[in-house]
UniProtKB/TrEMBL annotation:
GO biological process, one term: carbohydrate transport
GO CC, alphabetical: ATP-binding cassette (ABC) transporter complex, substrate-binding subunit-containing
Residues of the full protein shown: 17 to 242 of 386
ABC transporter domain residues: 4-226
A GO MF label: ATP hydrolysis activity
Keywords from the UniProt entry: ATP-binding, Nucleotide-binding, Transport
The protein, known as: ABC transporter, ATP-binding protein
Amino acid sequence: MSEVTLKNVCKVYPNGFQAVKDFNLEIQDKEFIIFVGPSGCGKSTTLRMVAGLEEISSGDLMIDGKRMNDVEPKDRDIAMVFQNYALYPHMTVYDNMAFGLKLRKVPKDEIDKKVREAAKILDLEALLERKPAALSGGQRQRVAMGRAIVRNPKVFLMDEPLSNLDAKLRVQMRIEIAKLHARLGATIIYVTHDQTEAMTLGTRIVVMSAGVVQQTDTPENLYNHP
Ligand code: ADP
Ligand code: ADP
């Protein structure tokens, strides 16, 4: 179960700029929430506040009824996938996927089991000994997903995870992500510029503009009945 609630969440950066104003959203368990809106409207800032990578200036973040504002990122049971993949170049695919678990002192045999399970789901089994430089964009993307999956988090945050891929791979990965969502039964918050991604993946779409939520609705209501 993972319900995520943002209540009057605001972000004022140290320079005084208010990037997010009174963000309100109740996300149900297993929802696939999409954030859309022009560049600079506060999508990443909001995602980073949920992850704990950015302090919440005011308001509350709740996960399953527990206030999370002051909980360390590593204790939030959340995994984030970035658009630049953020893989360690000197580590193999296996070690990249194992790293977050090693940090958390998970026993070695358990790490091994989880990495191999994730590799199977993501079709990475043949690539475990490779370094990121020897992978295609889509493969790197899958390793980044794998790093998130092995931790079995309640909530996945994805910030334009497909934006660096070419059109064909993007379509392929979009289908992979939809399958992953169904298979993992996880709650996902996903930032994208791509209307097709928003329409096909989202259970609900949050439209932001200049730090404010303009509209929250299902893809059907948002795009089919203008
Ligand atoms: P988006 O993800 O929608 O493109 P961001 O959340 O990255 O938008 O940024 C929202 C706004 O906050 C932008 O105007 C951006 O320039 C500003 N911003 C982001 N990070 C900082 C920071 N560290 N200090 C001041 N302003 C920032
Ligand atoms: P987890 O998998 O547990 O989320 P990560 O492996 O993503 O942990 O990251 C652990 C720490 O290493 C974080 O502080 C993160 O910002 C940092 N980190 C992640 N990827 C890279 C990278 N490619 N280069 C440098 N630092 C990184």
